């Protein structure tokens, strides 16, 4: 799950909604409000981020083209995640909203009938010509809320993947070369340890270590394993090489001092800040950090690469725009979504360190940002996106973090952690009803 630094704002919760059937297609709805004067939009990106800047531009364009005022409210990721079903079943619901992709989030809301079926809008605007392959998987959900097939319920306009970030100045200081293979990576980490430097910045209390664990899983996993794990297409073998390799490697890297045991209480922001301030020379995390590193580490030589020797990488489409079924302004909501996919908005995103999916490469003026986009384009070209490890169940994010904390602090063995993960995964999938 890709989570950024967020700004809090209040939400009002209503009564929980029970599961209902999937909603009909929004563009044919007869209850569209005539001549609306405003539209309500929620998202949780910061104003100075690449996405925040791009979407602010989209709001300006929308208001100029339609004459309709945008009532924008910035919400936190956790507010929307924890209260989405209640809010979308109330009068507080926005007309269009950023939401996290995946079975346990957007898929759940789609299966509850809380999101508008976007199939007609996809045809009208041709979004399926822009959003293809694994980028499209996170926008489509079947009647059980499982991603990858069925109707469209969400539209992304950017991508994300996890990469290795390197503080090249620290590498140069210790005479260590930037690694290009996995063997070179472990060799570089060993040299840093020998010099008294812990190489990897980690935040085990939140997503950074689970993303590293999943990247190691992907080093040994094939498409069948990924489909079984993410889309319940077959059974996950928790004694298989991908799981064993990843979990043992994390334990090995802790034992060798590549990862600090003190990182068990650190969150994602702590890990990012520790890389920014030069405490650690390496950080494996999402593309959403890139614009912050380039702006907050001015004067430091920061570089990146996809994880060495990887055929699959952690990542997916970005978060998705959804239109709540309760909205009476669905046509306007769809128009706003379409503007976020316009070349002008996409170019703005790319020039501020984001990963647009429809930008003009010639319009990206910053060389390092252009290189970052080209790296992601290569990931898409080679079908390398391997999604995220917490998606299969609504509770697995916290359960995975907790198990990895036990692994790092030594309170559970590799076998105990794998058994715990297997039990939590299987129970979550069974409770969700995702599988027949």
From TrEMBL:
Keywords: Signal. This is Extracellular solute-binding protein. It holds the Pfam family SBP_bac_1. InterPro entries: Bact_solute-bd_prot1, SBP. Residues 1-23 form the signal peptide. The keyword Signal applies. PROSITE patterns: PROKAR_LIPOPROTEIN (PS51257). The keyword Cytoplasm does not apply.
